[in-house]
Every structure is written in C-alpha cells, then in structure tokens.
Design brief:
The structure holds three protein chains of three kinds. Chain A has a two-stranded antiparallel ribbon with strand order 1-2. In chain A, β1 and β2 form a beta hairpin. In chain A, 66% of the residues lie in helices and 4% in strands. By secondary structure, chain A is mainly α. Chain A has one domain: Up-down Bundle (Formate dehydrogenase/DMSO reductase fold), CATH 1.20.1630.10. Chain A has ten helices and three strands. Chain B is built from 26 helices and 36 strands. In chain B, the strands form eleven sheets. A seven-stranded mixed beta sheet of chain B has the order 5-4-25-24-23-6-7, covered by helices on one side. The longest helix of chain B is centred in the N-terminal third of the chain and has 18 residues. Chain B is globular, with a radius of gyration of 27 Å. Chain C has one domain: 2-Layer Sandwich (Alpha-Beta Plaits). Chain C has six helices and eleven strands. In chain C, the strands form five sheets. Chain C has a three-stranded mixed beta sheet with strand order 10-1-11. A two-stranded antiparallel ribbon of chain C has the order 2-3. A two-stranded antiparallel ribbon of chain C has the order 4-5. The complex binds ligand MGD (2 copies), iron/sulfur cluster (5 copies) and molybdenum atom (MO). The site of one ligand MGD has 34 residues of chain B, from α13 and β29.
Chain lengths: 326, 966, 245
Amino acid sequence: MRPAFSVLFLTTLIGTGQGLLIALVTAQFFFVIGSGPSGESGAFYALGSALALALLGLGLVASFFHLANPQRAWRSAAKWRTSWLSREVILIPAVCGLTLLYALDHWLGWTPVLMVFANGKALDLPMALGFAAAAAALVLFVCTGMIYACVKFIRQWSSSWTVINFLLMGLSSGFTLAAAYAGLMDSVLRDFLVADALAATLLAMATRLYQVRRNGHVRFRSSLKTAIGTHHPQIRQITQGFMGQSFNTIEFTAPGGAGTVRGLTVFFILAGFAVPAALLAASLGGTGGALLAVAVASQFAGLLAERWVFFAAGVHVQNLYYQAKA
Amino acid sequence: MRDPASIPDSELGRSEVKTTTCYMCACRCGIRVHLRDGEIRYIEGNPDHPLNKGVMCAKGASGIMKQYSPARLTVPLKRKDGAERGTSQFEPISWEEAFATLAERLGHLRATDPKKFALFTGRDQMQALTGLFAKQFGTPNYAAHGGFCSVNMAAGMIYTIGGSFWEFGGPDLERAKLFIMIGTAEDHHSNPMKMELGKFKRSGGRFIAVNPVRTGYAAIADEWVPIRPGTDGALLLALIHEIIELGLFDREFLIRYTNAAELVNQDSASDDHGLFVRDPDVPVRPDTFETPDKLWWDRHSDRPVISRSAGTDGRLMGVYTLDDGTPVKPSFQLLKERVKDYPPDWAEGITGIPADTIRRLAHEMGVTARDQTIELPIAWTDSWGVEHDKVTGNPVAFHAMRGLAAHSNGFHAIRALAILMTLLGTIDRPGGFRHKAPFPRPIPPCPKPPKGPQAIKAGEPLTGTPLGWPADPDDLSVDAQGEAIRLDKGFSWEFPLSVHGLMHNAITNAWKGDPYPIDTMLLFMANMAWNSSMNTSEVRKMLTDKDESGAYKIPFLVVCDAFQSETVAFADLVLPDTSYLERHDVMSILDRPISEFDGPVDSVRVPILPPLGDTKPFQEVVIELATRLKLPGFTNKDGSRKFRDYPDFIVNFETEPGSGIGFLSGWRGKAGEKFLVGEPNPNQWDMYARNNNHYHHELPRSYQYMRNWNKGYLDWAYRHRLVRYTDPIIPHIYSEVLQKFRLAGEGKWRGKQPPDRLRERVKTFFDPLPFYYAPLEWGKSDSSAFPLAALTQRPMAMYHSWDSQNAWLRQIHTSNVLFVHPKVGTVGNFGDGAWVWVESPWGKVRCQARFSEALEPGTVWTWNAVGKASGAWGLDPDANEARKGFLLNHLITEELPNMAGSIAISNSDPVTGQAAWYDLKVRVTACQPGEAEESWPQFDPMPPVPGQTIGFKSKVRAFMAGRKGK
Amino acid sequence: MSKVQLALVIDLNVCVGCHACVTSCKEWNTSGWAGPLTDQNPYGADPTGVFFNRVQTYECGTYPNTETIHFPKSCLHCEEPPCVPVCPTGASYKREEDGIVLVDYDKCIGCKYCSWSCPYGAREFDPVQGVMKKCTLCVDRITDTTLAEDRRKPACVLACPPAARIFGDINDPESEAAKAIRDYGGFQLMPEWGTNPANHYLPRRKISMTLHKDELVRADNPLKIEGELPRPSFNAPSIDDLSGW
Ligand SMILES: Nc1nc2c(c(=O)[nH]1)N[C@H]1C(S)=C(S)[C@@H](COP(=O)(O)OP(=O)(O)OC[C@H]3O[C@@H](n4cnc5c(=O)[nH]c(N)nc54)[C@H](O)[C@@H]3O)O[C@H]1N2
Ligand SMILES: Nc1nc2c(c(=O)[nH]1)N[C@H]1C(S)=C(S)[C@@H](COP(=O)(O)OP(=O)(O)OC[C@H]3O[C@@H](n4cnc5c(=O)[nH]c(N)nc54)[C@H](O)[C@@H]3O)O[C@H]1N2
Ligand code: SF4
Ligand code: SF4
Ligand code: SF4
Ligand code: SF4
Ligand code: SF4
Ligand SMILES: [Mo]
C-alpha cells in the first residue's frame, strides 16, 4: 500500500498524544493510590495534557490532508455502526474534549471529590476526567488499529497484532515523551515514567518484531486462479489493460522496492525502539531531560518510518489484477 | 446527489443526435453522434446501420478525443524561410497562398512533365477521387496504401477467383461450420468480424486460428495452430496435397465451375507451352474475356471436347495427347503433380506444424465440406443456361489477411489458399467465401495501367488508369527497353502485377532519382516519415538530403494531414485536414464500398461539426486544385469552374458525360428513383442522410450466390454497369495469365520482354501454379546470426499511428514492448522486462522485452506503430511513446541487395510488389548494464507547429472531454 | 421472489479483448451522471486516468498449449459488498431497488477507505474531484425511460461487438443473464471472500471434431471416377490363373 504522509503523521501524532495522556493519567493515578512517586502540581498535568492535546490536534490537522473533501469531514461520523473509520472520527474529538477538560481542570485546580472509597482514597474530578480521557484514548487506539486490522484483503494488517501494536507503540512513544517532559520539568515523576516508557518500548519492540516476522509468511487466500476463475496451474498476467497509471496502481503500491522496506525496517527498529530503549535505560535514575528528549526525537522519526513500513508492507489482494503492463 | 433517474441525460443541456460514418478506422461503421450544447457528448454505434448494427469498437468510442486532441493541425503552414526541412519550423499562411503556390507549381509541371508530380495517399478511402485527379493531371505516379498493405491478398485472390478478402469479400460465418482464420489480427472488417465470431462460436462452429501469435481473435479459437512466419504457403500446399490424395475435393464444382479440367499445352517446344489448348473453330466474341474455346478431356468419349459441352464430363486427372500430337494435361493434373512434392511431412519441417496436425486439418476441412452440405431453396441459372433449383454450399470458411500477404512469397501462398478454397467448393456459396459488390470481377479486372511512356503527355490526362490489372506482358508500364516508367517501378518487370503500386519505395526512388527525379510529392494521409516506410531512419534522412547545389533531392514536399504526425515535420507545405466529423465523404462504389454479401452498399459521411480552425477537407482541396489546374472533368469547356464544392461534385460528377455513373450508387435519377446508373440527383446527399448515411441494394436471393457463374447476377451487374462482361468468372486453378509472363521470361512471348537481368526472376516467380519458396529476405541474411522472425500486429485499440494523440487510447497502449518466448531470454541471458537490442542486417533498435508463451518460439512481435518520434502527435517530448515505445520499421530494409546481379530491388513480393514487412529476421541480445533504459533510436524532439492547442489548454480539454452536464 | 440484482455476465468464450467496452464506458460516463472520469497528464509521460472498466490479458500454460484469456473487469456489484459498510459517510451504498452499488459524490470525503475493502480493485478514485468513483452499471442509462427499450442497457454492453457482455437481473431465472449463468457454468470471482459478486463470468468452451477413419474413404470418392482408385482390369492376374476347383 502507498504510505500517505497525512496518515503517517495522523497515526503517530495521535498515538503519541494518546500515550502521553495515558502516561499522565497513570502517573496521577499511581500518586493518588499512593504507590507511585510523590505528586505533581496541577500545572504539570495541565501543561502535559495540553501537549497531548496539541499532538492530537496536529494529528487531526494531518488527517484533513488525507481527505480530498475535508469540508464534508463532518459526514464521516455517520456510519459508526459499521465503520471503524467512522468510530475513529467520533473518538478523536471525544478524546480531545476529555483531554481538554482534564487539562483545564488541572489548570484551574478545581478538585471536588466525587467519591471516597472504603480505603480512604478519594476520586476527585481531575482524576475522574483523567480516567475518562484515558479510557477514551484506549478505545481510540482500538479504533485506529481496527481500521487497518479489519481490512481483510491485506493479510499483513488483518490481525489483532495490528491493534496491539498501535496500542503499544502509542504507549511507548507517549510514555517516552512523558518521561522527557518530566525530565525537562525536573519532575519527581521522571524515573517512574522512564521505567514505564522503557517497559512499553521493549514490549512494543517485541510485538512489532513479531509482526514483522509474521508478515514474512502470510499468504493470500486468493490466487490468480480464483481472481480470474480459471483453474489452470500456470497463469500469468500479460497486461493489466493500461500502461500509464491509475488509482489502482498508485494507491496500492509503495514507492521504492523491497529494499526500501528492509532498510526502513532496520531503521525503525533502531530509531523507534532500540535507541530510545537504550537512552531510557541510560537515563534511569538520572536527572534532566536532554537524553530523554533525544529519545523522543529518535523514536518519533523511528515511528514515522515504522508507519511507512506498515503501509508499504501491506499487500492488497487487488494487486493480483495489476501486475503487468504491455 | 441528484438521483440518476431524475433527469434523463438527453434533457441536460440542448441535445441533438446526428448520424454519420465513423472513420476512426477503415471499417466504416455507422455512428450516432450525440451532441450537448453543440459539443460531442457521446458517440454510439448506429443500430440501424447494416455494417455494425449498433456496436462500437475501442477506437470508434474514443472519437471524441480526436476532436480535442492537441495534435490537430488548424492552419495551413509553410516551412519558414531559411529553416531546414525536417526541423518543423513553420509559419501559418492562408489557404489562398497555399492554393496559389500549389497551382503555380503543379501547373508548371503539368505543362512540362506531369510525371514529376507524385501523389501518394495512405490508409485513406478516397482513391476514386485521388486516382481520378492523378489521371486527369497526367501522372502515372499515383498509388495508395495497397502496395505496402495487402496487395498480395487482392492480387493473389482476384487473379484466382475474381474476388478477395480484404474489403472485397469474406467468410460466411452465418452458415459456416468450420472456420479457419489465417494471419489476421484486426482487419478492415473490425466490428463485423467480431460480431460474426461471437455468433459463430455461440452457434457451435469450430474456429481454428493459424497464426504465430495467439492474441485477439486467435485467443478465442478452439484450436491455435502456431506457424513459423512466412511458411503458410507450405502449409496450404500440404493441405492441398492431402485433400487431393484422399479425394476430399468437390469434383463436380471443380469441373463445372473452374478451369480444373481444362487442358494445358505440355509441348515445351511450343510458343504456347503452358497455355490452354483452344479450338480455333469456336467463335470468340470480341467482348469476351473468358473465351469458350478451351477443351477438356471427356470421360465418356475419351476424347477432347469443348469444355462444358452438354453431356460430357471433363477429366481432372490424366495425361493425354491431342489428335495433332500435342501433349496435354488437365490443369488439375498439373496441380496434383505440383503438390506431389509437398506432403505434410515436408511441410512439418518448414512450418513447424506437426504433419499429423496438417493431415487432421485437411481431413476436418474435407469432411466438413463434403458431409455437412448446406442446401438453400433458391433457384438460379448458371452462365451456360443450366437451371438449378437450389443453391448448395460446403460450410468451410476461411479468412486471411496480412499474415499471408505481407511476405515476399505471399502471392503464391494466397493463390494456394484460393485454390484450397476452390477445391473445397466454397466460392460464393453459403458457408464458404462470399463476394461483396462490385466483386466478383473478371480475372483480371478491366482497368489497365499506362502501357508506356507514350501514355504520359504534357498537359494531357494519362492514358489508362494509374493503377490497373495487367492481363499479359503487353499491359506493363515499361519503356522500349523494358524499364519502369513509374517512380515506384510499379508494373515494371520487377513486379509486373503490382496492381496497387509500391508506395513504400516512392521516397527512396525519388531520392535516388531512379528511375528519374521528381519535383513535387504530395502525401495525403500517409505517415511516410514514420510507420509506413521501411528503413525509417534512413528514409527520414533522404527527405532532407540535398544535392551538390544545396537543393533538396526531393524538391517540394506537400503533406495533407489532420494531425502533427512525424511526416508533417518534413513538409514544405502543410494542408490541415478536417476530422471525419467535420466533412462530407463517400465510401464509393467506385472504390471499396461497404457492400454486404447480399448486395452493394455504399455510404457517406456528413459533417456533424464545423471545421476546426482553418482546416479544409482534402476533398475540397482536390476539387479546388483540379479546378484551378483546369483538369478535364473538373472544368467546363470554357475553363470555368464546374463544381461548386465537393458535395456538388459528388452529386454531379459522371464518369463520362451522361454515363449516369457517379460516386454514389443510391438514389440516382432526377428524383432518386434509380440506383447504380442514373442521372445526377440534386437531393442525393439528403436521401443518404435520411437513410442512416448508406444505400443498400439487396439483390434478389437468386442473385446472391454463385455470382461468378450466375447468369442472372452477371446480367444484372452488366446492365447496372458494375461489369463490362457477362462471361462467367472461372476460377484459375492454373493461371494462364502468370504463364504468359513466364513465356515472356523465356523469350517466347511475342510482345514485351523483360530485360535480361530480370528474365530469371520472371521465369521463377511467374509460375502458373502456386509453389513454395522461402521469403526472399531470408536468402540475404544469415539465419544463424539472425534466427528470429519479427512481426508486428495491429492492436484493436489503435489505428496505425493515428491514435497516440488520443487521450484515452494512449492509456491502453502507451508504449510497446517486444514479446519474446522465455527461451529467447534464456539464450540471450536476460529476464522478463529487460531492455534489449534487436538487430537485423539492416538496422537496430533498443526496446524492452517481455516474455510470452503465446507465440511460436522462433517469433518475436510487437504492436504496430505505437512507438512515436519525440514531440510528435501533440505529446510531450518525454511521453512514453517516444521514450519507451519503438518502431520495428527501423529494422526493415526497403531494398534487398544483389537481387539481379548487383542490383538492389525492393523488398517486396516479386509478383505484386507487396511490401514484405513480415519477412524480417532479427537477433535479440541483452543491453549492457548501465545502458539507458530508453528506446533507440531517438530523434530530436519535434516542436509543436503554429495552431496546435498544447499545454494547459489541451489538458483542460481532455479533462472536460465531452460536455459535462449535471 | 428474490430481490432484483442487476449485473453483467461476461462471456470469456467470445471476448476478443477489443477494449470497446473500456472506451465506451469512459465515453458514456465521463460526460454523464457519474462523470467526469478525469485524466491527468493526458499527453505526457505516464498518463493517469479514471476508467470504470478495464480489459486485462492473461496467459495460461506453456507453448504450444497456451491459452490467452481476455478478461474485462469492472465493479462486480457484490451482493455482500465489503466496500459499503466501511464507508464512514454512507456515501457508498447499495441500491435497494436493483442491487447496484453506487457512490454519492456529494457525501464522499475521499478517504479511499472503501477501495481498501474491495478485493477486486474495482474502485477508482478521482483525484481531481476528490471522490471515489466506479462502475455505476450505467444506472443513468438503464433507468432512462426516454431511451428506446433496447438501448436501455449499459454503454459497454451496447458496444461489445461479439456480445460478450450480457446485462440483466441475475435473480430473475428467466433473464438472459441468469440463463447464461445456469447453462454455461457462470462463475464468480474470488468466491473465498464471501462477497457474492453479482457479475458473473462464463468460461471458455471448446468445440472439437471427431473424425472416423471410414469418413476418409467413401464410395462416392471422386478419385474413383477419375480412375485413381482403379478397379483392376479384366486381364489383371487373379487366383483363377492358377487354381482349379
Ligand atoms: N485496430 C486496427 N484495425 C486495423 C488497423 C489498425 O491499425 N488498427 N489497420 C487496418 C489496415 S490498414 C489493415 S491492412 C488491416 C490489416 O489487418 P491484419 O492483416 O489482420 O493485420 P496485421 O496486424 O498485419 O495482422 C497480421 C497477423 O498475421 C500474423 N502473421 C504474421 N506473419 C504471419 C505468417 O507468416 N503466417 C501467419 N499465419 N500469420 C502471420 C500476425 O501475428 C498477425 O496476427 O487492419 C486494418 N484494421
Ligand atoms: N512495421 C510495420 N509497418 C507497417 C505495417 C505493419 O504491419 N508493420 N502496416 C502497413 C500498412 S498495412 C499500412 S495500411 C500502413 C499505414 O500507413 P499510413 O497510412 O502511412 O499511416 P497511418 O498511421 O495510417 O496514418 C497516416 C496519416 O494519416 C493521418 N490522418 C488521420 N486521419 C486523417 C484525416 O482525417 N485526414 C488526413 N488528411 N490525415 C489523417 C494521420 O495523422 C497520419 O499521419 O502502414 C504500413 N506499415
Ligand atoms: S471498427 Fe472502425 S469504423 Fe467501426 S467503430 Fe471502430 S473505428 Fe469506427
Ligand atoms: S472514499 Fe468516499 S465512498 Fe469511499 S469510504 Fe471514503 S467517503 Fe466512503
Ligand atoms: S466489486 Fe468492489 S467496489 Fe464493487 S461492490 Fe464489490 S467490493 Fe464493492
Ligand atoms: S456498466 Fe456502465 S459504468 Fe459499468 S463498466 Fe459498463 S459502461 Fe462502465
Ligand atoms: S467489448 Fe466485449 S469483446 Fe471487447 S473487450 Fe469488452 S467484453 Fe471483450
Ligand atoms: Mo493496411
């Protein structure tokens, strides 16, 4: 499939935004239940979630570049019953909205207690908003992942690993960003977040590597035999019927060859996972955010490459019909 | 969005539907052109047209884009002063200036030496008019595409059965049970052939394709018989061998209706050797071409008798002696002896087709013909007055085109085919081959070429027609020394029966000044600087070559085209033609009308749109020029203009004053009450237009079959001046015409004799019976160095070079590749899609190779004329056509060296001058790493000419194709 | 009675690969309800264009047993079209009344998601208008009651010279389309995806001839009349020359 830059940015940016949001909420939660590092100021959360919001917003902007007719984007919420894309379209603003509330509430420091638990811990409004936003962000990961995972005509995409990877890579990049943010802000949360980010990054690397391996073997259910309904052991396409280009040859093929995919795969494993993991590990127990900022930059570049590879490695069944020009 | 059913399409904008005739190819289907607000919205097949009955082809449906093409020429142009020819530097001029220039130049030539004007027209359909112009001008140097196209098909069959495939006749697939298609890719009968094939297959007919390549029609054949190119003659002779051997021929048909039983003089000492023996006591009328004085050997009385005498039965076989001691044999016996040497096992070695397959094919043909006879309850009377109460037919049909024709041995291969069809008894009978009016013609047809230099006189029309049908050596166009008088050497001893001329040699000969230099060459609708020339790279140089004095060797070149073709670049004067939707035109009975099996049909084109820019129909140009030159027939006695314009000419022209014969056959007579012959009818155009632009005269059923010998039909045709004779048209199994030329070669003919250097050639190739010889080019190239046969095929979605400027069609064939068998790649060490060099002894090209299993492994092929010169056809200089596409023509030589002593002769069939495109042999080798992935040769990009709509505007027009209404 | 499902039945047995359906489709639709079918770079390198219908060519087997198959393909108007539910806007829909799958250009946002969910590569994005397009089964022709009844057919069907394209309601057992499917083994493309395409294809069918040896020798063989299959002459040797009973 042809990687569209709008979609690369959309998915990586919102993924990081969602991950950052979840990281902040997690940190807050662990503080609240008392098992995490000591607390942080409302301003810390407010600024962090504003950053998440910015990323979500940027992603949304990027997504508009993907639409040929963005002025009608509002229509895309219509088919939420059947279309994961529609669901994603509904969830992005929902996540943004909740994140905004979460940020605002922290900023304003408005912390009415909503509920007190038996163990004495209380759920205040910011925490509740945090849960809601994080939950929405998690569902959004599923929606985004499912958009690809449910395209059954692309075997490389059509598995639960796609959803898992979208989720884990989002968390990984989000936590790394959160860690860097904490480091730069000299936050007490720094090490907590660095450790989480490291774990998420290693996990994401493992599952993504698994998917790379799996995609090496997946086979089409279809073949030229079923494509043209001729039961002959040797079928070759002589011509696809036109020699210039068409949507079917542009949208469904990646520029560059297998070499590009291989090169970028190595790159994203290194830049997206290995380098950030190493930097995260190296900054465990340290202070400051410079190294972590480098990790963020490296990882974002790596994830862009990862997303490029994700698309490029997706081979669509329809390509059976578009193999030869003559 | 508006509901699709809410507003009918016709109610969007101002809609009109007009009918005319398509000319996206030479098939000439009826079309209905839908206009919206005056622009074309949709072109569909006209369901009320007899030819295509509503269907369309890929080209026809893309006619819209021809109107919007950026390649359209829109103003007359002359080469800029000081600009070199070939650089495409032009300035616009007025039509008045163009006419004045031409009239002055041509007027001078006509008054001094008319043969210095040469008019050549390509794949056009107005040879009746252009030929008339040339004749009245007084030049013999006129020809159309036939010589490089398929003249072997015309000559081979017309000299044998008085009719042919091509546009003259065809297979009766409605009734056939077995259909054998040989060497045909797309043809002039494009849509009808496809329609008939569909029906034929659905009704359970068996379809066999003989072709080195399996594409198009051959793809849906029940059996594909791959054959080595150039070897069909061997296949056909072996089929004849097997059919004769097993007695699978139609004896009754042969005896009664052909010359199979007629006796041939076998006395080799006699001057009449090889001619039919004749009874001098039988009176022969002077208006007879098929004399009734020949003899056959009566089986009952065991005596020679006048053939077809009542109560006798000729013998097909045997060796006999006449009372005067002359040894004689029936022509069938000679054929039998001839094919004795051509058994299937022999043919296997030549054709690559297993002998068993050849035998089986012969059996299938013979048994189907014999056992599945058709009987139609149609009474008719034959030329000898015998009444028949039925028409019978043997349902084996053939069709063949340039796969047979475009070889230097094609004439004899095609004669073999015509003879095979005759042996099976399938001539103008149901289920077999059927003629289309004005065929059948006498063998050979009546028009004769000019017989010598005396036919060309300053200021006078030519004696004879520029093209004709020699019946014996005395009809040749040669001077006292036996040398050519035509520029292309047509009707000379090099190619005596070149009935369509040799356009493919016109430029080379003019450049060489051999046989003489000319002054002005007018090319109409012919892309001679590209796809209709052999040796294209060199020919392009000849067009710009200068003599010592710095003058162009071909002094003045006029090109009439509708598009910015490669040839336009070489013009000194460009005449921009209209498109087919912008002009009047006729598909005349004097030319090649669109007749059906059941009777003559001719048709017209009427303008749907006004001419684009300052374009003018070439038809009008011819009338105007002829008028200005005061050519007889175009001017009144006092020299004043006779015809207002082309439509006026078409209505009022008569072949001779009062002859009643004109270009259109329908609605003649003052009120349109007559047909074929009748006074001019001022409303003829309207009447055609009202009848879907055609006139169809359906013959009575009893005149529809057996027309070679159908008394009723021949009388009817005679009365309506379709033929000059009512004699039966007896198929020539044995060709006395050819034998007469051979006798001349042997020095036995009392008239014209070939020059000594050509005697051997004439003796060899003017064999009265078909024989097989390897294509001539093969004798000039080393088969181990150049092992592969190289062919082109017509793509169904492109017409020659016309359609690369068509935004839709060019997306289907944007460039071309060379298809090769994977083994060729294994041997040459290259893979599928590799760039390769293709070399012949005469040139080389670089192109991309693609593997295919659907071809005879010793054959490589490509689509014809898809490759283009950079910048031509309104395309960007980097368009795929120019950078990836290639032209095979660069590899084909127009002359073969050392053909008569050290003299080079055109690379053509030695009988007819048919261009031997498909004799080409090549080798294919891998490109070196690092070589450009671009076709070669490349030419300097041709700049657009003034008046073309190029760039953004053309893209917008392509985008807005048709008229959008929402 | 089951629902109306209009469709094309394409007879591979007679399709000669002429591309008439390709350009007739383009021609009708580009200036019609579904148009324009835009072309980019129409006169330059690598032209790109929107076509609703393509004719492809395949080769099966190896020389000399090669089959060349011309294979026209447009949207198959699946009965379970995977392209429809994924569309977030509802622009892609399947018409209730005749089963035609259409795109409403006024709703389409050009996200291309539906095209990913078509296994047949039948959808065509128009980069100029920014909406998804595809074969409409010429809905604007077949529903146009101002056209003569026999012209109320898709442009490609009317154009096809060998009549390789049959149009009709495949759920109406009496239709020519349904009969063709039934009688000639009509099949669907990629049945493994459960899309249940409405368009069907008819396979190649071969006619062959069986010849019996005795058909080659016959009592009425003309060679007999010609004396080429001679009856021995009266005087020729026979067993009577030696034996006596
Ligand atoms: N679409 C389209 N239609 C056209 C034209 C066009 O350019 N485009 N051109 C028109 C013109 S001018 C003409 S003359 C006709 C020509 O009509 P065709 O004669 O049908 O055209 P060709 O492409 O020359 O096809 C020759 C066929 O013969 C095969 N062949 C070549 N050599 C041999 C051989 O030695 N033996 C056998 N058995 N087969 C052989 C080739 O593979 C090819 O299939 O078509 C007309 N119709
Ligand atoms: N290698 C190879 N070469 C071949 C053949 C082959 O099979 N293989 N086939 C040969 C055969 S059979 C033929 S017939 C020739 C054809 O060869 P040509 O007749 O020379 O070539 P075409 O490409 O048909 O186009 C001739 C010119 O007509 C112009 N034209 C188109 N429409 C109009 C119009 O309405 N008015 C005017 N005035 N001009 C118009 C085109 O722009 C083009 O420049 O090619 C021959 N060349
Ligand atoms: S076959 Fe030729 S005349 Fe007929 S529609 Fe096609 S291009 Fe036009
Ligand atoms: S491109 Fe248009 S039709 Fe396709 S899914 Fe998106 S909105 Fe729906
Ligand atoms: S062929 Fe493709 S576009 Fe057409 S209905 Fe089926 S899935 Fe949808
Ligand atoms: S039915 Fe209409 S839209 Fe569909 S392929 Fe045929 S012509 Fe094109
Ligand atoms: S028009 Fe008919 S024969 Fe031609 S390619 Fe299309 S389906 Fe095949
Ligand atoms: Mo031709």
